Amino acid sequence: MTVLITGASSGIGESLAVKYAMEGHPLIITARNKDRLDVLASTLIKRYGVAVTAIESDLSSKGSALKLFNKITQSGLTVEVLINNAGVGLFGEFHKTDMEKEEAMIQLNITSLTELTKLFGREMVKKGEGKVLNIASTAAFFPGPLMSVYYASKAYVKSFSHALSNEWREHGVQVSVLCPGPTGTGFKDAAELGDSKLFQKGIMSVEAVTEHAYKEFTEGKEEIIPGAMNRIQTRFGKFISSKKAASIVRKTQERV
Ligand SMILES: NC(=O)c1ccc[n+]([C@@H]2O[C@H](COP(=O)([O-])OP(=O)(O)OC[C@H]3O[C@@H](n4cnc5c(N)ncnc54)[C@H](OP(=O)(O)O)[C@@H]3O)[C@@H](O)[C@H]2O)c1
Q: What b/e string do you get for 131-165 counting C-beta neighbours within 10 Å, with b at 16 or more?
């Protein structure tokens, strides 16, 4: 069962790659940083004896998902498990943040994820088997002042994943969505969250998120939320208005 993981050069993607290699699965790992991918690939090959193909891909550029799909299929590889993990955030008031960064985020978090799901998912539906894990966030449950585009992008990922899970179940394809809360990875720095209160407490380790995600995805669970506090917060969110939720979220991630 070959597993394709996007954004495997660090954080949750890298950790999932290690977990799948430990379990004996061949891997295709992608990200922009080819040096990091190559180091990870040779470590996993040496340590676990699995086949690992590393492919450089910037999924924030238009057409990149199709290019990646063509590269993989032309090299004769088939993907049985697709993990759409690559994603970025951006902190700041919307009228001040950089539009180019937000366009790149939408291309990465939404467009490429959608295109990869269509391209690989179509093949899975044809075969009548396969699995897709899309990485959203607890952010998917709320409006997110000071990270408005990121929260909205993750709400898209969650809604899209539940809809596809419903459509593809009858075709033998599992679609799940992983919604982690704050996790100790490179995300905080990449999202320019240095001044925010968000990562000051309640941070889960990347290993704990990975173990939880791997177990529940393997069991076929549709919505996976690692961490008891994250599960409580997202459930609570269903009982308050969007206006109230936005005001609470703003308080949790204001500048210190
Ligand atoms: N950490 C958290 O608190 C948290 C919470 C909820 C959800 N998430 C989600 O979890 C996922 C993984 O994030 P992480 O926490 O593991 O952060 P991370 O350590 O920053 O990892 C992000 C990964 O995405 C890749 N990536 C970034 N831009 C890319 C691009 N343009 N094209 C292709 N790959 C790109 C990065 O590799 P390169 O830089 O080499 O391209 C890296 O491998 C994201 O979808 C994020 O939104 C994270």
A: bbbbbbbbbbbbbbbbbbbbbbbbbbbbebbeebb
